[in-house]
TrEMBL record:
Its EC number is 2.7.2.11. CDD domains: AAK_G5K_ProB, PUA_G5K. The keyword Kinase applies. Keywords: Amino-acid biosynthesis, ATP-binding, Cytoplasm, Kinase, Nucleotide-binding, Proline biosynthesis, Transferase. This is Glutamate 5-kinase. Pathway: Amino-acid biosynthesis; L-proline biosynthesis; L-glutamate 5-semialdehyde from L-glutamate: step 1/2. Gene3D superfamilies: Acetylglutamate kinase-like, PUA domain. InterPro entries: AceGlu_kinase-like_sf (IPR036393), Asp/Glu/Uridylate_kinase (IPR001048), G5K_ProB (IPR041739), Glu/AcGlu_kinase (IPR001057), Glu_5kinase (IPR011529), Glu_5kinase/COase_Synthase (IPR005715), Glutamate_5-kinase_CS (IPR019797), PUA (IPR002478).
Amino acid sequence: MSKRQLLTQAKRWVIKIGSALLTDNGKRLDTQSMAGWVDQIAELSRLGHEIVLVSSGSVAAGMSRLGWTARPSAIHELQAAAAVGQMGLVQAYESHFDTHGMTTAQVLLTHADLSDRQRYLNARSTLRSLLGLGVIPVVNENDTVVTDEIRFGDNDTLGALVANLIEADLLVIMTDQQGLMTADPRQEPTAELVSEVMASDPKLDLMASGGSGQLGRGGMATKLRAARLAARSGAATVIVGGREARVLTRLQQAELLGTLLLPEHERLVARKQWLAGHLRTKGQLVLDQGAARVLRQEGRSLLPVGVKAVSGEFQRGEMVACVDENHQEIARGLVNYNALEAAKVVGKPSHQIQAILGYVDEPELIHRDNLVLV
Ligand SMILES: Nc1ncnc2c1ncn2[C@@H]1O[C@H](COP(=O)(O)OP(=O)(O)O)[C@@H](O)[C@H]1O
Ligand SMILES: N[C@@H](CCC(=O)OP(=O)(O)O)C(=O)O
């Protein structure tokens, strides 16, 4: 199977569109191109792919609405432009998606949001709910409250963080070059396109060391870093020229476009390695014999009904150990309920969670994707 078949099979895509591409010479939003990408995203969605769009362009759109011709350097002016421009940006997406009968949602995030556990979980469940509802989330940085990000314009990293957050299979970074080239094509006209490579390959650092274009901020270095970040949760990345005709649908058909950066491990393996190695356990769940057996032998999710006792203090999303009746550890995983809630629902069938807690987040205590056997 060609590696490009990965793209046809990738269920969940994060598509990042950079400033360099979105703005018509930095003067205004290129709404005609935006309409073209929206048409393709609508097509991908009809084919069963789930899409989160990460779109830059608020600063440039704001500059044009405010009648500014040069990008300001003062942070508060950039933030003001972004606040004005974000309105135009989401308006343009909303109206184009509407022609396909599709609904969009605006999600503004900061890197700090994603490093706070509770906010991370909230962002994750919001995005998952939106995808479940068939809505297209349109994500940008919350420029009103950030400083460095707006200065370095690093939506590439945001795209990768979103890919990690929703466990995407694929991150597509659309930019103004055809992909990652052997050198910055603005300086080296003979530079050639790299078609397929492992994201971790050290020789890429030198290739991507050139700066950015006039309008973009991050250049290739942030795109490479984003691909490596996405690879940590097992997602592949494609860096591709967004001006190429029907670029997204052609990628979906496994056509050789742009640069494919591959992860070392497939998504679930990468995620489980990360789970196993990175988190401390905050509590324990004692399983009955049946639950211990299905976890060990069939790799299934852990339901509350198979748990006899809960100990420790843990929050939703934290790591707990699953032990058998002899206190032998079987597995560990990220728990869907906090210690108090878990204590109330253990031993009970999942359909009773609603009646016991007054709400239900998930039917499992630990989903199998979040569970590693030890
Ligand atoms: N090896 C490379 N291959 C392709 N582009 C490169 C490379 N090194 C640096 N660049 C520069 O990166 C720019 C794209 O990044 P950037 O301007 O930040 O765009 P965006 O707004 O899409 O994030 C290109 O226009 C190019 O000048
Ligand atoms: N959030 C800001 C800046 C983001 C930005 O420029 O990022 P990038 O497209 O990666 O260079 C905006 O929407 O203009």
